[in-house]
Design brief:
single chain, 445 residues, alpha+beta, Alpha-Beta Plaits, five-stranded antiparallel β-sheet, 22 strands, 24% strand, globular, binds flavin-adenine dinucleotide
């Protein structure tokens, strides 16, 4: 099969399996392959290295048990977040942490230690994973945050390198309604956005800002800060409301236009129009999907960038003591991007706390994510320059989005990598089921 991540670059050809049953999968750990879920990581984390096989988990999608007293769901790793929401939202439960799409598997979410719009309040998904079963090359292992904790901390956010996560325990959260109380605030520039975060986001569980990456001068970084809470937060309904049937795609991009649809003029038009949408700053309620998963209404939106694909560049700049380093780093990165016209139609700014896994991405500070069309060597050169700016501010790039970081830059950004790889090699000493990402970053050297 030809395989790629969501950014559609790089593309590899590889053989693999899509097993139906966990038994047959676990019995076959003698020939390990790289786990792959729904392929929503943008770069090469889910792509097998040359000569390796992949194992797609999308049919390992059974719910095993649910305890309504604790909210703990045990499920196979190929269950999608969409499937969990379909079953549990009507019963008054929600995901404790969710990325910006529901089309990821639970295993993929754990393997990337995903974060959501509430990271500054409750961290990444690691804090809600109660147990894992992992089919490693050294045998099937059970681990929890306290039992075989090193394996747990190397597997959560471990990009599939310790083996296949087969079962996951996840603590869901109680909600009183499928709707979200939300508020949108327009800000004239980046300083205004940061001020908005400081002033408002402790009062809401969720916060995220859309940034116009094409605006320059005094308007650089103008944007819209979106705040939200589950409606009726803190109360539990006597009877859960019936769900609005979720998960619809309203429009599907049928094919990849030769030069992409998202030309610079189209990006500018979109950003200006989005910024001009009137926002009263007052609260209103909306369905959870519109708030958490706005992009899911367009099927295959990644095709809009054309056959050459795109990079998603997400970086975090730490600001451990709140002295403003995070803001200065984001400002420098954005200034570089606008100067070189590397705008995006969707750039997202979030506040973060610290991750606790062995290879942490989120650091207390700010993270900015944006799509960058792949226009060849020039794009790669510019992104290398951007890496240097991120490094200057002590920042790092998110590996689940990455397809091009060099091994030296990676090592400088992630000094924890050696400790993490020591833990990986304890269960996978020969480096079986290697990903392209792991080879590119020289993790097995
Ligand atoms: C529109 C969009 C919005 C996003 N928003 C966010 C966001 O807000 N926050 C965030 O953190 N991420 C975000 N992401 C990234 C996404 O959540 C992660 O890349 C996630 O890992 C994708 O899950 P998947 O099932 O598609 O896994 P894949 O992309 O198939 O695999 C990702 C990694 O997980 C490993 N893996 C998959 N399944 C298993 C398993 N069962 N056992 C062991 N390893 C496994 C793979 O080897 C690979 O290294 C977003 C992605 C998209 C497309």
């Amino acid at each position: 099969m030809a395989l790629s991540g969501w950014g559609r670059t790089p593309v590899v050809t590889a053989e693999g399996d899509i097993p139906d049953s966990l038994r047959e999968t676990v019995d076959d750990v003698s020939s390990p392959a790289l786990p792959r879920g729904l392929g929503r990581s943008y770069g090469d984390a889910s792509l097998p290295a040359l000569g390796e096989r992949f194992l797609e988990t999308t049919r390992l999608d059974r719910f095993i048990s649910f305890d309504a007293a604790t909210g703990i769901l045990i499920a196979e790793s190929g269950v999608s977040l969409h499937a969990i929401l379909q079953v549990f939202v009507p019963r008054g439960w929600f995901l404790p942490v969710t990325p910006g799409t529901q089309w990821v598997t639970l295993g993929g979410a754990v393997a990337s230690n995903v974060h959501g719009k509430n990271h500054h309040h409750c961290g990444s998904i690691e804090h809600f994973v109660t147990e894992l079963e992992v089919a490693t090359p050294a045998g099937v292992r059970h681990c929890t945050p306290t039992e075989d904790a090193d394996l747990f901390r190397a597997t959560v956010g471990g990009y599939g390198l310790t083996g296949l996560i087969t079962r996951i325990g996840l603590r869901l959260k109680r909600i009183a309604s499928p709707r979200v109380r939300t508020r949108g605030l327009k800000t004239p520039n980046l300083a205004g956005l940061f001020e908005g975060f400081r002033e408002h986001d402790n009062g809401y569980e969720y916060s995220v800002a859309w940034v116009d990456t094409l605006a320059r001068g005094n308007s650089m970084g103008r944007g819209v800060l979106l705040l939200g809470d589950h409606e009726g937060q803190g109360t539990v309904p006597e009877k859960a409301k019936p769900p609005k049937v979720p998960g619809h795609t309203f429009f599907n991009v049928p094919f990849s236009a030769p030069h992409g649809i998202l030309q610079p003029w189209a990006l500018r038009l979109f950003n200006t129009a989005y910024y001009r949408i009137p926002r009263s700053g007052k609260e209103h309620t909306a369905g959870y999907e519109g708030f958490f998963y706005p992009l899911d209404v367009i099927g295959n939106w990644n095709r809009m960038y054309g056959p050459q694909g795109f990079f998603q560049y997400q970086f975090v700049i730490p600001d451990p003591d709140g002295s403003g380093a995070g803001e200065a780093g984001v400002h420098a990165g954005l200034e570089f991007l606008t100067r070189h016209g590397m705008g995006s139609f969707l750039a997202v700014l979030k506040r973060c706390g610290d991750d606790a896994v062995m290879l942490p991405f989120c650091r207390r500070g700010f993270t900015l994510a944006l799509d960058i069309p792949h226009r060849g060597a020039e794009t790669l050169r510019r992104l290398d320059e951007l890496d240097r700016i991120v490094l200057e501010f002590g920042g790092r790039v998110y590996l689940t989005k990455d397809a091009r970081l060099s091994r030296d830059t990676f090592r400088a950004m992630y000094p924890e990598w050696e400790e993490w790889m020591r833990a990986v090699k304890r269960v996978n000493p020969e480096g079986q089921g290697r990903s392209l990402l792991s080879e590119r970053l020289g993790l097995w050297d």
